[in-house]
Design a protein that fits this description.
Blueprint (H helix, E strand, L loop, with lengths): L42 H10 L2 H12 L4 H12 L2 H8 L1 H5 L3 H4 L1 H4 L1 H37 L6 H21 L1 H29 L12 H20 L17 H26 L8 H8 L5 H30 L5 H21 L3 H30 L5 H5 L15 H17 L8 H5 L6 H20 L11
Helix pairs in contact: 1-10, 1-12, 2-11, 2-12, 3-11, 3-12, 4-12, 4-16, 8-9, 8-14, 8-15, 8-16, 9-14, 9-15, 10-12, 10-14, 11-16, 14-15, 16-18, 16-20, 18-20
Length: about 475
Amino acid sequence: MTTHPTTTRAGALDGQGPERAGHPETRGIDLVPADERTGHPRRLFAVWAAPNVSYLSFTVGATLILMGLTLPQAVGVIIAGNLLWIFTGILAASGPVAGTSGSVVSRAFYGVMGNKGVLILTGWLIASAYLALNWSAASVAGIGLAGRMGLPAGPAVDAAVICLIAGATLLIAIYGYATIVRLYTALSVLLTLVFVVVTGYVLAQADWSYAPAEPLQGTALAATLGIGFTIVASTPLSYNNSPDLARYLPGDSGPLAVAGWTAAGAYLPSVVFTSVGALAATSLDMSDPQAALESILPGWFVPVFVIAVVANTVANNGMTAYSAGLSIQSVGVRLARIPAVLTIGVLGTAMTLYAILVQDFLTSVNTMLQLVVVVTGPAMAVAVTDLVMRRNRYDGPDLLEQEHGGPFWYHRGVHWSGVLALVTGGLTSLMWVTTTFWTGPIAAATGDVDMAIPSGMAVAAAVYWASARVLGTVPRPGSPRP
């Protein structure tokens, strides 16, 4: 068996542990040795809570009310859409077992060569888009704070704020796993305190008897509920990197504990603060979320709130940039982890500059959240289906083997069951999605009802399971390798 390269820092790819908080992480996608795996799955709660105590949650919650939903309808969509964090948690369980990144584990789904193409889409382009989305949210807040400080308004100041936020984010991604675990534990507490204060002011202003001027009914209501569900659920579906944050746990960590702490850490703050955003929209004009929230906060607290918004975004994107750097290595680009992180950061920064300086922020948010599920939903379905079929039995050294004829070479390097499932699921989702510039033909025929997520995920899971069973490419646990 050919081992995966694990050269020193001066080498072609990356160096080796042990990793310490406050020091740049030297490990890339190579296998985490057993003696460097420590901790308990419960620490994943804070790791996932910090990115999801989020200003973007306020924005998404407000959007549901602006779309015409009642408060109970909006809260119902928020609770249902965030249940998909369960899939993120299930996928995280593969991290301790495999001892390598999720972008390497996915070779089991798509094959060594097929995985490269999928990662270019999900690990580079979509990751860069999410970096831009979150940086845009933080930049809107940071630009407002710069104005309060007396800095002149204009593209130069806007660009400087964006680049400063991007730089802070990439610094966290460069320092890596150990720093993320230590820092996010503190951030989850501090951010929660700040956002709880904001919540108190929102609750004092909220109109608990709010009703839309023209309540939605029939097909219009069904269409709006579907779009709302897609927007909310798009966030958990985007986190196919959850194994990356669990791979340093001991290999015998309980899969239920890993899945549970991951899902709970993200689900609870997401539900709470997205609901607060919906409440805010019952009494405030949330078409400009930052201005609306600042209008009810005491002047001395506004800078604290803005700093918390920026810190949350840095936490969220630090995790995304960290995993995106690993994805670049998994594709086979001969970069060390740190240059790989910087590469994805430059792309995300360019997209952020466009979103802030050219496009309207809320339009950019909603359009992107609706469109990415065409890929992320089926991709998550394939991953979870494979994990269930294998009963979460992944061998790290086998996954890192890339030679022709290796364990995950399949047919000419491609696992056609995975590729077929992703494509058919994506096409199905595209037929059901509803956005401002594209409505799928099936959605249009049913009154613009957006069923992109359930349809795409169901088709992808069914196609993957059936084709892998027929072709015998995913062996049952305990059976010999095909």
